Amino acid sequence: MSNPAPAPFFHRSRVTVHCGRPASFLPGGRLIAMIEIDGSMHSGSGTVFRYAVALAALTGEPLQMRHIRARREKPGLRPQHLQAARACAAFCGGQLSGDEVGSRQIVFQPGRTRKGGVFRFDIGTAGSATMLAFTLLPLALYAETPSRFSLTGGLFQDFAPSAFHLRDVLFPHLQSMGARIRMKIERPGYVPKGGGRISLEVEPIRRKLEPLTRLQQGSPRQFRGISLASNLSDEKVSERMAARCRELLAVKVPVEFEVLHDSSALQKGAALFLRADTTTGCILGADHAGKPGRRSEAIAEFVVSTLREDLATGATVDRHLADQLIFFAALADGETRYRIPMMTDHVESNLCIVETMLGARTARDGNIITIGGIGLKP
């Protein structure tokens, strides 16, 4: 029987979330208590799945998830989600049932080991290696020893954070919370061939993650961008994206660009990233990947307009960081508060997940998100 619903810090009337511990069987017939999550909740995306598996591995709570990615065009596990689950299981010594491409239900029995070490994971497709890194990061932060990861897959694509955004927006925020993370892009990877590789080094936190307060945006004091093109030097794609960005920004504050030419990727590809640093210490970013038929100038126009839209709301985080920070704020020791550009399905899903699986207390007042972290100890 499910426990009574917690105090209404988050509205759940439109979703089914089982917060209790119903009796369930693991493969082999062992009876255990288990968290049940409906994967169709809110966004119904792979984000719900990855969050749930990572938190189960972190807390040691057995997990059953049904209706995985139910709202996507191709429901069920794709290779990138499958690798994320298997990577979490490998890291903590856990067991998975239902772990195959297309599966809409898994059972995960986490192990009790989180020793760190050296790991290599290859998605085998252009699936997002950055989302795999995001999934493993909290486990590595709470491991006993440092962790070193080599992750292979896609690094620059639509509908996933780019390696630039992960390194230059999310990681600085986590470092402000006490995390020590280093990441290197070894080789870019694009759709459809993938093959991109990042190396990630994570030191265990010494005490607890510290909360963040970001309520005043201030004004931009500088813009920094990275314009990358692989196997496209003759077309001058990097130069064109950077030039169009500068033209569109037309600001009086400094604008700096790294213009990068790469020949190591498995195919032609491009990516553009733009970051705004404000007078109050906020960092907001936007990015976009290239693909056949997408003009360099159109990529720049998308990136600049996206970042400007987020800045115009007075937000202290960008639309992607808004949901990414929830995971870590819920683990921190104290109350995190920040101003988001808009409410999204991903924000709503992630708030619900940390309430359900961690007991974190969350609230929303207009565009200000408040997360009461549980102060998880290393």
Descriptive account of the structure:
There is one protein chain. The chain is an alpha+beta fold and 378 residues long. The protein has 3 domains: 1-113, Alpha-beta prism (UDP-n-acetylglucosamine1-carboxyvinyl-transferase, Chain); 116-206, Alpha-beta prism (UDP-n-acetylglucosamine1-carboxyvinyl-transferase, Chain); 216-312, Dihydrodipicolinate Reductase, domain 2, CATH 3.30.360.20. The chain has helices at 46-59, 79-92, 129-141, 163-176, 237-249, 296-312, 321-331, 345-358, and strands spanning 17-18, 23-25, 31-33, 35-38, 63-66, 95-97, 106-109, 117-122, 147-153, 180-187, 196-203, 213-214, 220-230, 255-262, 269-278, 283-289, 335-339, 361-365, 368-372. The strands form 5 sheets. The chain has a 5-stranded mixed β-sheet with strand order 1-4-5-7-6, with helices on one face. A hairpin with an 8-residue loop joins strand 6 and strand 7 (106-109). The radius of gyration is 20 Å and the shape is globular.
